[in-house]
Specification:
This protein is an alpha/beta fold. It has 2 domains: 13-140, Vaccinia Virus protein VP39 (Rossmann fold, 3-Layer(aba) Sandwich); 145-318, Vaccinia Virus protein VP39 (Rossmann fold, 3-Layer(aba) Sandwich), CATH 3.40.50.150. Helices cover 23% and strands 30% of the residues. The chain contains 8 helices and 18 strands. The strands form 4 sheets. A 7-stranded mixed sheet has the order 3-2-1-4-5-7-6, sandwiched between helices. A 7-stranded mixed sheet has the order 12-11-10-13-16-18-17. A hairpin with a 2-residue loop joins strand 14 and strand 15 (257-258). Helix 4 runs parallel beside helix 5. The longest helix is centred in the last third of the chain and has 14 residues, at 260-273. It is elongated, with a radius of gyration of 22 Å. 39% of the residues are buried.
């Protein structure tokens, strides 16, 4: 990722947004602190011996920001790192062309001194020295923004600009009365869980979300004591006792790459969490071939609604022999 001419930079070094498998070998593990709020990457980096946290305090003698896909989140990461640097400390920016590194470089050229610009396979890395008297525009800083009445999001979370249409369609197809114990896998900023809480029958809902910023938004959005929040990877999430309902709008991308195995893993988790009589309600893009995966975990799989873009699926009989499938083949 990053090669310093004299090895690890002197003093304390901050890395914002490093992924779990990033090559950080030029950095001294003991002098480096990593800010990472995505649970799988957080766990992977911690397992490699790095000091990782969702928020970092203190001053640093240098920093590296790994750019995400979201431009608003990229600006927030840069501003967050810059605010923790001692005056005159270098800030390195590392990003892919597909993640908008050229656009960020162009913006920063107007705000700061840029040097050490290096192109690499599909991206760039460059060094920024910010003027002490100006810094970065205040609007770059991360802050919650209201996207629907009573709901806030943060930069970079899924569907940060408004209610996801797939989740909205799923909410329309939930039964009038829900089971008593429900899990929302991949709960995001909590909109779908809030719709579930508005229905009778529900006694507890577990919101499971790997993105800490999204989960913090969900905490802001839901004050109902029946809601419990879990910062966790839905693919290996467990509970002491089974539940009788799961709702989910599973992701199917890792970065920019389609990855249907993510949705398949969510389905496996749902089956594992449910009682035999429990029910799963999920929404997915119509082109995703989840029916065979569902049939491997549930006795009955039925498409109960949808449109040209999405399909709403109900599945029952978790852990039973598949073969009594309903709905579409």
């Amino acid at each position: 990722m990053l090669a310093f001419p004299d090895g690890h930079p002197a003093g304390r070094f901050l890395v914002v947004g490093a992924r779990g498998d990033d090559d950080l070998s030029p950095l001294d593990v003991n002098a480096t602190r990593i800010q990472q709020g995505y649970f799988p990457d957080h766990q992977a980096l911690a397992a490699r011996g790095y000091h990782v946290s969702v928020a970092i305090d203190g001053d640093f003698d240098g920093a590296l920001v790994v750019l995400p896909r979201s431009k608003q989140q990229a600006r927030a990461r840069i501003a967050d790192a810059a605010a923790r640097l001692v005056p005159g400390a270098p800030l390195w920016i590392d990003g892919q062309k597909t993640d908008g590194v050229d656009s960020i470089l162009k913006e920063l050229r107007r705000l700061a001194d840029i040097d050490e610009v290096h192109s690499k396979a599909h991206g760039k890395i460059f060094r920024v020295t910010l003027p002490v008297e100006n810094g970065l525009p205040p609007e770059w800083r991360s802050r919650p923004s209201e996207v629907a009445p009573g709901f806030v999001t943060r930069p970079g979370v899924f569907s940060a600009d408004g209610i996801d249409p797939g989740s909205a369609l799923l909410a329309q197809h939930l039964p009038d009365r829900l089971p008593t114990r429900v899990v929302d896998l991949g709960a995001g900023w909590g909109w779908l869980a809030a719709q579930a809480l508005a229905r009778p029958g529900l006694e507890i809902i577990h919101l499971v979300e790997a993105d800490h910023a999204a989960l913090q938004s969900a905490r802001d959005n839901i004050s109902d004591p029946r809601a419990q929040f879990h910062w966790a990877d839905a693919r290996d999430f467990t509970l002491p006792e089974p539940v009788n309902g799961v709702i989910m709008n599973p992701p199917f991308h890792e970065g920019r790459q389609p990855e249907p195995k993510l949705g398949a893993a969510f389905i496996a988790t749902a089956a594992r969490l449910l009682t035999g009589a429990g029910r799963l309600w999920m929404v997915s893009n119509r082109h995703l071939p989840y029916e065979n995966v569902l049939a491997g975990h549930f006795a009955k799989v039925t498409e109960i609604g949808g449109d040209s873009r999405y399909k709403i699926i109900e599945a029952t009989g978790a852990g039973r022999q598949a073969g009594n499938r309903g709905g579409r083949p």
